[in-house]
Amino acid sequence: GGDGPARTAYNFAVGEVCDYKLSLALEAIANYDLDGLDWDYCRSPSFFPDGVGQQHSHVMTDLMRELRAAVNAKARQVGKPVCLSARIPGSLDDAHAKGLDVRAWIAEGLMDIVIVGHARANKHRLPVEEYVDAARGTDIHVVAQNLGLFMQPRPLSARLLWNERDYYSTEMCRATAATHWCAGAHGIYLFNNHLIPYVRNLDYDRRPWMEIGDPDLIAR
After folding, report:
1. Which of 11, 18, 50, 176 is the most buried (most CB within 10 A)?
2. What's the pTM value of the predicted model, to 2 decimals?
3. Could you give the residue ranges of the DSSP H alpha helices within 109-200?
4. Residue whose C-alpha is closest to residue 25's, from 14, 38, 11, 12
5. Residue 70's closest CA among 36, 93, 116, 103?
6. What CA–CA distance (Å, rounded) separates 6 from 208?
């Protein structure tokens, strides 16, 4: 139960839901030559009825343990590391309220990479520092989601008269990435940028892709 997307979301408190979602991941792990699996909690960030996420967080922790065991078994089978990453919506406390006890996952070493993300639209500043602090002393890498595809557009007249773009500029992408590098991120996560040339601008030069991965290049 809930408003908006939560009205039609899967309820992970129902055992069959967890079994179904887990089976999709286990099938991919078993049947494909993977370097890793990325479990995206931002795409649909409603996992339990409103207000009861935290009390059901053990359900999601058990799910992450199952995924960790599966990628470890795959790694032993193929003789190479197989990593597990998860993209998390918002702060550690916000995630926990939704049922994602990321602090416990980090303490148990259930992930190799944790992606500090945002569920809907984009944010120029993410709580990278608290994830870096939580992962300190572990081998877990903290990656920050950079600006995604489209920003809130100005009126159509502004785009027609002044050729204003409705996707993030190179400067905005660069500045956001630089801020997250300074906050201690180990890497930057591009989200949906690859669609810009196809749905907005065939001449998009992909400059952010060439710049934001180098913290020294964009430090100033």
Report:
1. 176
2. 0.89
3. 128-135, 156-162, 170-182, 196-199
4. 38
5. 36
6. 34
